[in-house]
Amino acid sequence: MIELIPEKRIRRLVQRYGSFYIYDKEIIDQYTGRLQNDFAGINFLYSMKANHNPDVVSFILSKGFGVDAASLNEVRMGAANGLGRNEIYYSAPGKTDEDIRGAIRNAVLVADSLGEVERINRIAGEEGLSVPVGVRVNPDFSFHGSGGHPSKFGIDTVQALDAVPVWKGLGNIRVAGIHVHLRSQVLDAEILEGYYRRMFQLADDFQTALGQELDFINMGAGMGIQYSRRNTPLDTESLGEAVREMLSSFHAKFKRAKVFIETGRYAVGKAGFYVTHVLDKKISYGKTFVILANTLNGFLRPSLARLVAGYAGSGSPSGNEPLFTSLDAFKIVSFHPEWESTETVTLAGNLCTASDMIAEDITLPVLKKGDPLVISNAGSYGAVLSPMQFSSQRSPAELFLDEAGRFYENGKMLEI
Length: 416
Prior knowledge:
The chain is elongated, with a radius of gyration of 23 Å. The strands form two sheets. Strands 1, 11, 12, 13, 14, 15, 16, 17, 18 and 19 form a ten-stranded mixed β-sheet that branches. An eight-stranded parallel barrel has the order 2-3-4-5-6-8-9-10, surrounded by five helices. It has ten helices and 19 strands. The chain starts with 6 loop residues before the first helix and ends with a strand. With about 425 residues, the protein is α/β, with parallel strands linked by helices. The longest helix is centred in the middle third of the chain and has 22 residues, at about 190-210. About 30% of the residues lie in helices and about 25% in strands. Strand 11 and strand 12 form a beta hairpin.
């Protein structure tokens, strides 16, 4: 859709905002629709931490997605969009008593530690409530099937199973489900299929230990998007077919349990585009620098990719999500035709740090002051990660583009 926006409209937006994100509703609809079509019987939770833009959140939740909340504020956003407690799942380490008290009526709390289970029980009692809770488990298997690893997230499987008799004696909570999340940005359907099979076995172990049916099993996220041209997109059709076969056996034992998968970046990653513009050009010792507005402090990840690659030297660093995927994770394009004259440039930002660089020695059409540039794959972990207070610069806007080509900002249509 963004390719169809006339350049003059983009330039007017540049004049108005300087730099900005565009979230394309049609692409979000395409990716969320694919999840719903390919994974019959699965309930999806939107990972709001990937992109909490109000227009994006409102649209995705209107399609029947629940919320994977990582903070009290995200719980409140889900509730403000009309979702009930059993549609919002709050999982994060280090919840405060204030977090628990603020969320306990609006979300299913997923305890991240043995101590947190006790605190939820205590606070529920103080509030005169009896509530279902989830338990985040650090399993005794990895994403690839080998043994477990130490983690800041969740309760080790053995510790959790040993604690079940204690939990069953707590008067203000009922352990209603389990949650595991081990990895993001996976493009191999076979790896995800194996992980889901191990998750169903883990759920079976917990249901047996509890002696009562689980309400839910949250298998976390993991599904990735194609960042690099070298990547093959995830085959959601074949993965969905495998999951449907698993669900048939699963529901024979788990009569009422809902199965959740978190969207991670999948729902919005490809739908976001970051637009900046040329502020200045200079030549230093024969090298051409193009100075752009709001790069590191507008869309961090391309600059961070350069930084990671620099420290890695000649090696190929592995991804560390959601901060770094690969050096070639973003496509940078201008509105100039490809047949125009080109030049080799280094794209840097306007901050007082040498780390504010997004590309080095790349070939682009000859740019001049004011020209816009568009960076792809900016829909997930873009605005939410970027240090926009750096140097007290003006922050980028976040705009929502609908199927009719209209732009919205915080629910209000723009006249552009």
